[in-house]
Amino acid sequence: MNTAEQLRTAPVHKTASRDYSFDNIRTILITCVVLGHLLEICTPFPGLRLLYQTIYSFHVPVFIFISGYFARYNIKKIIFSWLCPFLVFQVLYITAQRLLGSSTPYQFTTPYWHLWFLVACIFYQLLIPAYDTASRTKQITAFVCTVVLALAVGFDETCSKYMTLSRFFTFQPWFLLGYYFRKHTTNRPAVFSSRHKALRTGILAGLLCAAIVAVYLCNFPNTVFYGSSPYASGVRSMLSRLTVMSISLIWIVFFVYTLRPLLQKRIPLLTALGQNTLSVYILHAVAIMVIDGKLPQLLSSFLSVIITTAGILLLFGNPLIGKIFRFLFSDRIPQMVLNTIKGKVH
Fold it and tell me: Is 302 helix (H, G, I), strand (E, B) or coil?
């Protein structure tokens, strides 16, 4: 994304200096988002739990880290690029549920399923003036405070999906980490010598393997990875959340220091999809509804799940859909209306 909010991007400008690494990483992440949701309704297969929990140990934290990395305090953008999509699709998805027989009331305090991410990012961006500081000591203090809040919120049984408060606190450290990380780095990944690169890659690969083994051995319930439930509801304990957060941090480091340097160039299809993740993120829930209700045979095996994932990405992540979303959820339509009104007045 050119504007660099996590799930959306501005129109692509082809310049020699463009860094495509985050576009490519976003494609990996949105693929995992779609795949993870399909795994919830597919026919069980060997290794399903490990694959599912491994995906959930990193895809949201890394996505939010990237959101923080590119975040800017811009009220106009917050309103049109984040709040408007939430309001529109909250109504549309609730309407779809009601048409299917649900009695879900129209409301905007509990986001529909995956739309919680939009609400959390709205709050994160509104807090940027409070986060923003040039002092490294204050930055470290703020980050530590968000980690403490992420752990403490699990003790509050009233803080759950209402206004996505539980997830807001649980994932806030990754947004702040991304926001501060950009302040101390250049746009391009650091270049290391071959020896240092090999050493770094080896260390990170080892940590990553250890993280995946930890996911397998800990045998956590899936709710531990969602960040939306208090400890009393079965998330086990503060230690389990701290373990998952540690695993997520390892993944973030892996994506930033191992994958990103390898993905700096434009890659056919991969880069294009990474520039249109907003449409995939919001619309893939439609495909989930249809498949779960009418076409469960599409998810009868692991191979069919992979094929269905690819189909959803191509359907909702193609450049045409991406351009439509960027146009609809920008300030261009209100500006056009305003100009038309002014023209008629004069």
Answer: helix
Q: Hey, what are 307's tokens?
A: 């094929």
Q: Tell me the DSSP string of 116-154.
A: HHHHHHHHHHHTHHHH--S-HHHHHHHHHHHHHHHHHGG
- Judge whether 126 and 142 are in contact, CB under 8 Å: no
Instruction: Decide: 185 and 191 in contact? Cβ < 8 Å.
Output: no
Angstrom distances, CA of residue 322 to CA of 6, 193, 284: 14, 38, 13
In terms of residues, how long is the chain?
A: 346
Cα–Cα distance measured from residue 76 to residue 84, given in angstroms and rounded to the nearest whole number: 11
Q: Are 310 and 269 in contact (CB under 8 A)?
A: no
Handedness of CA 32, 34, 40, 45 (dihedral sign): negative
For the stretch 189-239, pLDDT in tens is: 655 455 667 777 788 888 889 999 999 999 899 999 999 888 887 666 899
The residue assigned the tokens 């400890």 is 231
> How much helix, strand and coil, in percent to the nearest 5, is found in the chain?
70, 0, 30
- Name the DSSP letter for residue 73: -
Q: What is the chain's Cα-based Rg?
A: 20
| Integer Cα distance of 216 and 250 in angstroms | 16
Q: Which amino acid is at 273?
A: L
53: nearest Cα among 244, 184, 197, 322: 244
Q: In Å, what is the CA distance from 233 to each residue of 4, 28, 162, 248?
A: 36, 31, 16, 22
Helix axis angle, 165-183 relative to 116-126, nearest 10°?
Answer: 50
Torsion angle of the four alpha carbons 263, 269, 272, 274, in this order, in degrees rounded to the nearest 10: -60
CB 37 within 8 A of CB 282: no
Q: What are the helix and strand counts (H, E) for the chain?
A: 17, 0
230 contacts 243 by C-beta, under 8 angstroms: no
Token pair in block for residue 281? 């993120």
- The two three-digit tokens of residue 266, written as one number: 């434009």
Global pTM?
0.90
Does position 64 have pLDDT exceeding 80, yes or no? Answer: yes
Give Cβ neighbours of residue 240 (< 8 Å, ≥ 6 apart). 218, 220, 224
